[in-house]
């Protein structure tokens, strides 16, 4: 991966420190992006087998990008804005992540290690093994300094709380604003838009919007919805915002909650799917569209509309797609050249991706590349909906847990409505339509 040479500057050029090495960065971009653009794909070692780890999802959903940042352990570098002089350290390795003696665990136990039964019942050896395990367990060391005191939580009251500012959430907010219904839109990114800004563009995508297009005070960005609970005053959303005084928590009381939280990029099970250089498709499109970072040679694997949209996006910006493997097929008409139906994908490399292989028509094929991009439907972020009383079921056909909802977003909880990817996927146009339906449905029940 590299920063495209023809890219216009997107901010102030700064540097960060990676274990004594100076790394160029752009102020405010995710520091994980800065490292990837500088050729640093390995961020840490895994907890048990000390396998190399690198950023995968860019959604703070996988823990592969956790690093020690300015003396604080286990920080999601995919969510942490780069700051001049920021100090970064890899974790869970000795003496270093690139040369980690504990990586031999992975080599000694290729079939897996059951540490619960190792030396169990063997005198002395059992006690020694327990002491060793206690020293190796966990991830990261204690912070260099004590955490500052948090400001007291604040209380916010509104008619409707909308969580998620992607295609579905924006469509819902437009309906609420048009009807004059008070609402608060909570979005964890700095800008509204979700996949409309960060995903691979597709035909028919609705337009994005910024916070200024909505009533003043109705949009909260860089805010995380942490939970949906009840107390004597009614249901409330717990929202966390990182402010100048630290984490600011808010209790957002509302009559209705419209959840358009999207989904998590799931892992696709194949050999070496955890190697640095394997990225979720949404992460790759975000790196390219927002930060002008892309691989020179990429292999794409997965299925669905976004797989082909991502290939077109990469090729339009000068990346070479050396393989495009659809694991389900058939390959649609108009697909990029070289697309095929395949099986048994595998990433190759010691500390990061260097090649990719797959089976086509019964024969193995192997291509050299610097990134393997996995594009499959998102796994719905159903957690808030379930906390709010909605029912969740497993869809065996799609292999996903989805929120049970009517066409207008109604769930088993009369106060919770859902829209977009949380209900099981679809393109941005379909997500926006579901957001519109849900907003129109919930307005009728407001007092």
UniProtKB/TrEMBL annotation:
Superkingdom assignment: Bacteria
Keywords: Oxidoreductase
Protein name: Sarcosine oxidase subunit alpha
InterPro entries xrefs: 2Fe-2S-bd_N (IPR042204), 2Fe-2S_ferredoxin-like_sf (IPR036010), FAD/NAD-bd_sf (IPR036188), FAD/NAD-binding_dom (IPR023753), Metab_Enz_Cyan_OpOx_G3PDH (IPR051691)
Keyword Oxidoreductase: yes
Domain FAD/NAD(P)-binding, residue spans: 159-435
Species assigned in the record: Stigmatella erecta
Pfam families xref list: Fer2_4, Pyr_redox_2
Entries under Gene3D superfamilies matching the protein: 2Fe-2S iron-sulphur cluster binding domain, sarcosine oxidase, alpha subunit, N-terminal domain, FAD/NAD(P)-binding domain
Lineage: Bacteria, Pseudomonadati, Myxococcota, Myxococcia, Myxococcales
Presence of keyword RNA-binding: no
GO molecular function: iron-sulfur cluster binding; oxidoreductase activity
């Amino acid at each position: 991966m590299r920063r495209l040479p023809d890219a216009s500057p997107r901010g102030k050029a700064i540097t960060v420190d990676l274990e004594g090495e100076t790394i160029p960065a752009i102020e405010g971009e995710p520091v994980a992006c800065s490292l990837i653009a500088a050729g640093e794909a390995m961020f840490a070692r895994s907890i048990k087998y000390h396998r190399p780890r690198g950023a995968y999802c860019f959604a703070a959903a996988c823990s592969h990008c956790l690093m020690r940042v300015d003396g604080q352990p286990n920080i999601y570098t995919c969510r942490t804005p780069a700051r001049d002089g920021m100090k970064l350290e890899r974790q869970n390795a000795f003496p270093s992540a690139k040369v980690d003696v504990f990586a031999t665990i992975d080599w000694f136990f290729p079939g897996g290690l059951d540490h619960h039964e190792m030396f169990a019942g063997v005198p002395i050896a059992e006690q020694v093994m327990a002491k060793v395990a206690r020293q190796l367990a966990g991830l990261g060391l204690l912070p260099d300094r004590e955490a500052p005191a948090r400001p007291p939580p604040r209380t916010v009251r509104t008619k409707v709380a909308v969580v998620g500012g992607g295609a579905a959430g924006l469509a819902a907010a437009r309906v609420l604003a048009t009807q004059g219904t008070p609402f608060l839109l909570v979005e964890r990114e700095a800008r509204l838009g979700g996949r409309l800004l960060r995903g691979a563009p597709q035909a028919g995508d609705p337009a994005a919007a910024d916070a200024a297009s909505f009533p003043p005070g109705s949009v909260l960005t860089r805010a995380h919805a942490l939970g949906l609970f009840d107390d004597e005053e009614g249901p409330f959303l717990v929202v966390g915002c990182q402010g100048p005084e630290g984490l600011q928590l808010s209790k957002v009381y509302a009559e209705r909650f419209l959840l358009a939280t999207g989904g998590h990029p799931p892992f696709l099970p194949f050999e070496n799917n955890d190697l640095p250089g394997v990225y979720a498709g949404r992460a790759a499109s975000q790196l390219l569209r927002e930060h002008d970072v892309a691989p020179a040679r990429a292999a794409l694997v997965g299925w669905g509309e976004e797989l082909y949209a991502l290939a077109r996006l990469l090729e339009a910006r000068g990346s070479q797609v050396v393989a495009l493997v659809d694991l389900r097929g058939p390959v649609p008409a108009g697909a990029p050249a070289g697309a095929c139906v395949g099986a048994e994908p595998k990433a190759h490399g010691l500390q990061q991706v260097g090649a990719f292989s797959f089976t086509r028509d019964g024969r193995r094929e192997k291509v050299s590349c610097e990134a393997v991009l996995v594009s499959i439907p998102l796994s719905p972020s159903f957690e808030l909906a379930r906390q709010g009383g909605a029912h969740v079921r497993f869809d065996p056909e799609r292999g996903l847990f989805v929120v049970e909802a009517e066409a207008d977003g109604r769930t088993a909880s009369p106060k919770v409505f859902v829209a977009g990817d949380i209900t099981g996927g679809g393109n941005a146009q379909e997500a926006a339509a579901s957001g519109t339906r849900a907003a129109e449905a919930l307005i009728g029940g407001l007092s």
